Amino acid sequence: GKGLAVLTSGGDSQGMNAAVRSVVRMGIYLGCKVYFIREGYQGMVDGGDNIEEANWSSVSSIIHRGGTVIGSARCTDFMKREGRVKAAYNLVTRGITNLVVIGGDGSLTGANLFREEWAGLLDELLENNKITKDQREKYKFLHIAGMVGSIDNDFCGTDMTIGTDSALHRIIGAIDAIVSTAYSHQRTFIMEVMGRQCGYLALVAALAGEADQVFIPEDPVPNNWVEKLCKRLQQERKSGQRLNIIIVAEGAIDREGKPITAELVRKVVVDNLQQDTRITVLGHVQRGGSPSAFDRILGCRMGAEAVMALMEASPDTEPCVVSLDGNQAVRLPLMECVRRTKAVAQAMADKNWDLAVQLRGRS
Ligand code: ATP
């Protein structure tokens, strides 16, 4: 059977295990020899026990677990050609020519580069007598399929990244908990949620959690934001509301690009309204805990689609990223999506927020 390996790279997210499980089982079902690569690209560079053959039962009882059971890492070795030569050696000597990468735009960029260099990497290994001519010929094509695991929903081309829905559940759970205590003491709570570049989590959590105000990176506040915020909070209290909830995304800013932090907002509320005001920073809780049903199903569907894409690939098939479009799992050109995602980051850096939102498209 064909050799197929799966790795998770970059920041972890809930639902990655469902995706890994699906890749392994779909691969085995279609007659592949399937391998885990542990600790992201580091495991691919280091080889040894990091690359282990998977069987049907080795992915039992992982679908309900958060994070990634095969480990994830940031790997500087893979950024260098020398590291990628070692990684190629570790794949070729195991007969692996199909690779599923679950990660963010950085991880997918690395995967694409690896594929582009593949023939050259094998030539180098052959020259140094690390592999045989037969191996060079037999494994001359590397096929890549990507999936995006990220709680931020910050990738262009997919309506939802794997992990976003679970992170939202965590945030909503926290808001509900805060609301009950805030109600008792007539407090105002400011909650900081993740999202340096992308305000999706903050915005959707604010809607679902009935927040009074939300601050996100894509919609910098105007100069009179203090006045507007105070007026709104006061109005809500006057109309009988016993509490206020304000959501701040990590990357929230004003029109000059200065950060709007939870602490700044707290000071504004205390100084102007003398409300009893507390801050809750959710932090890593958001990426932890068990994945939602949606993320489990998303991981399952995407994993299966990724394996099918690899099995159908011909030598000139471009690498794809499996995405959710409406309610369909689709294959999109990997590098085009990565380029768009990077263009969004650039537009944000250039303070061209309208362009950023436009480039990001749906969701
Ligand atoms: P997240 O969105 O969670 O940060 P990411 O995949 O974007 O995920 P990165 O830290 O950018 O996270 O990348 C993860 C790993 O992918 C890096 O540590 C590195 O090993 C590899 N990688 C990233 N960019 C490249 C590149 N240009 N060339 C080779 N490898 C890369």
UniProtKB/TrEMBL annotation:
List of residues binding substrate: S150, I151, D152, R187, M194, G195, R196, E250, R278, H284, V285, Q286, R287
UniProt superkingdom: Eukaryota
Renumbered residue ranges of the record's region N-terminal catalytic PFK domain 1: 1-363
Places the protein is found: Cytoplasm
Phosphofructokinase domain sequence ranges: 4-309
Residue positions binding Mg(2+): D105
Catalytic residues as annotated in Swiss-Prot or TrEMBL: D152
Residues that bind ATP: G11, R74, C75, G104, D105, G106, S107
Family recorded in the similarity comment: Belongs to the phosphofructokinase type A (PFKA) family. ATP-dependent PFK group I subfamily. Eukaryotic two domain clade 'E' sub-subfamily.
Assembly and binders: Homotetramer.
Role of this protein: Catalyzes the phosphorylation of D-fructose 6-phosphate to fructose 1,6-bisphosphate by ATP, the first committing step of glycolysis.
Name the UniProt record assigns to this protein: ATP-dependent 6-phosphofructokinase
Full-protein residues shown: 35 to 397 of 800
